[in-house]
Amino acid sequence: MSGITIGVASETAVGEKRVALTPETCKKLVARGARVRIERGAGRAASFTDEAYVQAGAELADDAAAALGQADVVLCVQSPDPARLSALREGAALVGLLAPQADAARGEVIVAQRLQAFPLERLPRTTRAQAMDVLSSQAGMAGYKAVLIAGQLTPRFFPMLTTAAGTIRPSKVLIVGAGVAGLQAIATAKRLGAQVEGFDVRPETREQIESLGGKFLDLGVSAAGEGGYARQLTDEERAEQQRRLGEHLKNIDVIVCTAAVPGRPAPKIVTAAMIAGMKPGSVLVDLAAETGGNCELTQPGETIDVNGVTIAGPLNLASSGAVHASEMYARNVFNFVSLFVNDGAVTYDWNDELLAKTVWPERPAVAAPAAA
Ligand code: NAD
């Protein structure tokens, strides 16, 4: 009989279709000596059936309380609500995109229940952590879907076509921000046959954009920051970037915005004046809508028309590709959980920086041994 129980309930956030456990990862956790309980129907929105989980060794629970109540480790995509958290076993591990600071009540319950909460968005982005990096895996799906949405909204073809009705010129697509989502967007737009440009304030993205067949749009501004992320731009740098971009956008058919600065609202890059200068029939898909949008006019969750320019601000795009997004997310979670679930037991090695830096609240620094 195994020593620990891993619990998974249905996601409760509106529109969330992903699931943190797939039959594949369920099987692997069972092989690690864990007992897995999953709420009936928890995988349905991501197309994973209860039968598949049972075949992978899971027990089905009739409701969330039965799935989570006795669990030593709880896996989720988005955090359960405070009421659900307060019903967890004291000291249980909680793994997911928890955003504990986003909701004071959530943070309080995590502390009060002494949960070992691992908000995966805090995971250090080191080479060793790549297989656990949910931000990257989910951003890949989001970038892909953003281009498909743009392809759906645009009144144009993406590729060049030579037909009996004459030649169609390829769409000019600009991807703003060339992080994980942006690079996937570039690759996707390229595969659809568009003429693709990308731009980012980190100069190293030039090579990455070019290696995907895109053209680097040089706006004369570099903002390489720490840890591979961008820093905030100065006012002068921003003004120059804006001026050059505004000119350039007059000739662009589709923009996909993916720019972000960690821990801050999305940088506002496309202004109302720039949109006014664009051709009717142009489309902007703002992947940054969740954190306020890269375009001044973006309305999160809405698709609007501004003088013939369509501006879409889709939310939680990764969820719209729930099968593959869940497969990747669940593998990331499995790899992370493998750091502390072994032989049917939970053991934390706090010398492992992936655990120590991800856990929330932050662990106090270990005091240096007293001098003799
Ligand atoms: P992100 O989602 O935080 O940002 C997306 C992009 O927006 C970034 O490329 C950023 O430079 C860009 N950006 C910010 N402000 C901008 C502005 N004003 N104009 C134009 N672009 C702007 O980033 P992300 O995709 O999560 O990751 C960014 C980078 O971090 C990666 O490309 C990679 O280099 C690094 N990374 C490393 C690892 C690892 O080593 N394990 C894993 C993931 C990411």
From TrEMBL:
Its EC number is 7.1.1.1. It is an enzyme of class 7 (translocase). One of its GO terms (biological process) is NADPH regeneration. GO terms for cellular component: plasma membrane. Residues 151-313 form the Alanine dehydrogenase/pyridine nucleotide transhydrogenase NAD(H)-binding domain. It catalyses: NAD(+) + NADPH + H(+)(in) = NADH + NADP(+) + H(+)(out). One of its GO terms (molecular function) is proton-translocating NAD(P)+ transhydrogenase activity. Belongs to the AlaDH/PNT family. This is NAD(P) transhydrogenase subunit alpha part 1. It comes from Lysobacter antibioticus. The lineage of its organism: Bacteria, Pseudomonadati, Pseudomonadota, Gammaproteobacteria, Lysobacterales.
